[in-house]
Structures are given as C-alpha cells and as structure tokens.
Amino acid sequence: MALHPSEAKILSVLQQKMEAKELAEICGMSQDSLMSFAQSLKEKGFVRIFEEVRFRLELSEEGRQAASQKLPEIRVLSKAILQAPLSSLSGEEKAVGLPWAIRQGWVRVEKGVLRSSLTSIPAYDLQDALGMVLEGRQPNEEACQILLRRKLARQVQERKFFIEKARDAPAEEKEGQISALTREILLSGSWRGAKLRPYDVHAPAEVPFAAKRHPISKLMQKISQIFSEMGFEQMEGEELQSSFWNFDALFQPQDHPARDLADTFYVKGSIPLPKDRGLVRRVKLEHERCWGGEWLEENAKKAVLRTHTTAISARYLYERCRGSEPKKYFAIGKVYRNEATDYKHLAEFFQVEGIVVWEKATFRDLLGCLKEFYRKLGFHKIRFQPSYFPYTEPSLEISVYFEKKRQWLELGGAGIFRPEVSIPLCGRYPVLAWGLSLERPLMLLNDMEDIRDFYKSSIGWLRSQKAMV
Q1: Would you tell me which CATH number, out of the four given (1.10.10.10, 1.25.40.10, 1.10.645.10, 3.30.70.100), belongs to the domain 5-57+156-188?
Q2: What CATH class does 215-464 carry?
Q3: What are 256-301's pLDDT values in tens digits?
Q4: Which terminus in the chain has less CB density within 10 A, N or C?
C-alpha cells in the first residue's frame, strides 16, 4: 500500500522513540493529524505507538499565593517571634496558620499574645515542596498528600503518546495518496484513478468535551424555572445600594453591629435618599419610636455593596406593591459580607430572595412555599426551626436532611416582615419573606466540601460536575 506524503515525512523524521507532541511540531502538523497518520503507519507495520499516563501536581490559587507570600503558619511564626497580639492575625492565619504552627511546636498563645519557641524561621519542608511543584518537580509522597489535603495543589492527569519506528518503508511504498479532496483536486479531475487514503476513526486522539454551563449558572436557571412555575415574577436590583434600602428600610437600627466596617463593604461617596420625603419620614419615625435616639440621614446615604438581596425586596415593596393586588416575587443575586473566607464562607456569594404580598397570607403559607420549592429542587426531608432575624417576626431557619452525610444542614432563613418594615414601605401586612443560600444546596447535590471550588478556574473540575436536570 502506498504511503501518504505525511506518512513518508513522519518515517523520515522518526529515527528514535519520540513523543507525539514533539514529532508533530517537527513535521509541522497538529497532534491530532499526526496521530491519525501514525495509526495508519502502525496498521501497516511501520511504527509502534505507546501511551503513558502520568500524574503530576499543579498548585492551586492558594498554593501559588503561599509559594510567593509564605504559608500561613510561617507568617504566624514571624508574628510570634515579634510577640504580636493574637488579634493581628488575618482570618486565614487564625483559621489555618495558627493550628499548624501550634502543631509544629513553633508558637503558643499566652493572654492574647503570640509567643514563639524559636528565634528565627526554620527550614520548612512543606514550603520547599511548594517551590518544587512551582518549578515542575515532584516532592516526596508525604508532602504531596499534605498539599492535596490542604488544597494547596491538585493532581493533574497527563496522557502522552510516544511513537517508535518498527521498520523502514520500501521505496515503492512511498508513492503519494490523496487524504483530502480539495476544490483543486475535484476541478482538475486528478482524483480519478488516484489512491485515496482510508479514514481511520479509531486513531487515538484527544477526547473532545462538549461545552457545559457552570453549575452555579445552571442552578440559577433551575431556581428561576421553579419559582416561575409557582407563579412568581423575578426581581432585579443594583448591587450597589444606599444604606437606606439595605438597612434603614428593613428596620435595622443605625447602631446595629451589622453596619460596622468589620461586616459590611462601604463604597466611597453617598447615594441620595428617595425623592419621596413621606417615605423617608415614615422610616425615620419608626426608627426613632422603636429604637430611640436620633435617626441621621447622612448614615442612610452611605453607599454599600448590598449585604443581602432583601434590599431588592424593600424597593419592590415600595415601588410595586402599594395597591391591594396580591404579589409574588423572587430574586437571585450576589451579596457581599466583609468576612474571612474558608471552606464554607465567602466574602461574596449568591442569595435566593422571595416575598409574598397578600393580606390573607399565613405562616403556614410560608412553610408551604418553602417546602414546595425544596421538593422541586430535590430535597424531600425539610425541617423548620424558630430563629431570630432583625426584620422578620416570627422567624425561622430552613434545614434539609442530606442522606449521604446523614445530617441536617441549614440552608436559609425566612419569616414575616415586621409591620415596622412593610407598613412604611407599602402600607400592607403581612408580607412573607425568605433569603436562601444558593451555593450550599449545590454543594450537597455535588458532594462538595469546599465552597471556594465554585470560583476556581479549573476546566477539569467543571467537566467532572454532575449535570442538573
């Protein structure tokens, strides 16, 4: 059988065992094309093909940060040598670095002050292991397991193909073949009588992956569909809100701890109060009547990244619910909290909001809406427990039973807006309301342990996620 010119070129270049990627570069073709021709040569007995599967470590985002800025336990040790107060530690240093530094016997805490048993930073195998992975080298097995367990690195699978010449092709077999019918070949008629190269559908090549939506985007779509089926309309609102809509309209006092810089992201500048002075006056009177003291407009004008999507509910109550017609709304949006990130907390995350405005609504209606929503989402064991929230009374927490872990997990809060919230905004009572987590149920459905995995740019992780139906 005659050889295709590309096959002849491969044989002329191939003098020793070579990796397919390198051989493709020398021959000036894609790796997929080369593997197709190589498979044809293998069937003719001219080459042998070997596949090797290797695993290597690749630093995660946290691992790269630790490689450049040192591991949190080393940063804790540096502060302990200076006898810094415990309060000087960042959230990561306190949650991760301090336990590891204590485990190593480097530091102790005495009366709120870090104390060190060392006078200088020692050589640390785990820090060296980060540098090795960054350089493409493999640390010892123990260090690899620690890096993986602490999510400082992830294991990446590599498939490599190697090609080796089995025998040279006789000169008479180096005649050309046609592997692709081009426009020129068809017009010239040179395809008549020519030898056409068979197309090999079994030739090894990289596995193609179909496009897939991000799990969070997919769940948002499913939640929207569920609420739409239940007769709800979708609300939308700005992520940058005034403190008036984010706090004051929801009856949170102006000296409430949630307004502190430690919990809320404030943005430079201010946002004007609503033009309706009657609304502002009603909110002001409720605050001063119930909380005492003076209600200050300058505090209400402060710009914040919304801490909850309930700020959208407040605006919709005022703008669209002041009549007598029953209304049902839901929203899905990102909210921001100034807190340390760890495996179950983020400084920004999604929240699912909902309100039902109907004078005949009861607490049982609220429980029924939530139970139906989670049933449609795939959770059948649902529990409600009394709770407290500043702007709802009565209030409850919603938990679902997760079979795999055999435990109840809290997924959100709900209640009936206090009259001090809904009456000034729309003159109506009761208003059923809830704020639910979006990432947590998705973690349960995908058997995930770390909420941060949602926001890492990992194509391999995305491909491995379950499709939601």
Answers
A1: 1.10.10.10
A2: alpha beta
A3: 888 887 688 999 999 999 999 999 999 999 999 999 889 999 999 9
A4: C
